[in-house]
Amino acid sequence: MSERRIIVDGTTLRYEGIFNFNELYLLIENWVRQKGYDQNELKNFEQMLKDGRDIEIEMYPYKKTTDYHKLIIKIVIIAKKMKDVVLKKDGIDVKMNDGQLQIKFTGYLVTDYDNKWEGKPLYWFLRLLFDKFIYRAETTRQTRIITDEIDSLYNYLRSYLNMARK
Fold this sequence. Notes:
The structure is a single chain. By secondary structure, the chain is an alpha+beta fold. It has one domain (3-160). It is 32% helix and 47% strand. It has helices at residues 21-34, 121-134, 136-160; strands at residues 3-19, 41-49, 52-59, 62-64, 69-89, 92-111. Strands 1, 2, 3, 4, 5 and 6 form a six-stranded antiparallel beta sheet that branches.
């Protein structure tokens, strides 16, 4: 069975105010494609309430970086009390959203994702030795990659939401 390690646990971006939800979603999708990840969306839920819409989206973009390592980023987008508002921008009406937004990132490193080393007890033992001694440097490099990419996405969305305050 493949091993799934949590590398980045629950980095959360919170925002309250005016934003464009559709544009934010497209920014995340484009970033995922540009970085070479395959998109996997497991949950897309929307509920209409009297104080606004609640939306929950759960994505699991993944990328196979080697024959042994796979990177997975879990992205959970939760929008609460989201209402549609119309703003004037350069004399043109622009449809935006107002509400609370929370985006949570979790990064996983999966080793032996094809279960090639699980067939026999000897293979399992050899896999432990390989993990401990041979693949250690590569696993460390993959850990750095997933951490850097989550930091990159976090900062990209943070700058989009104009949260960089001094």
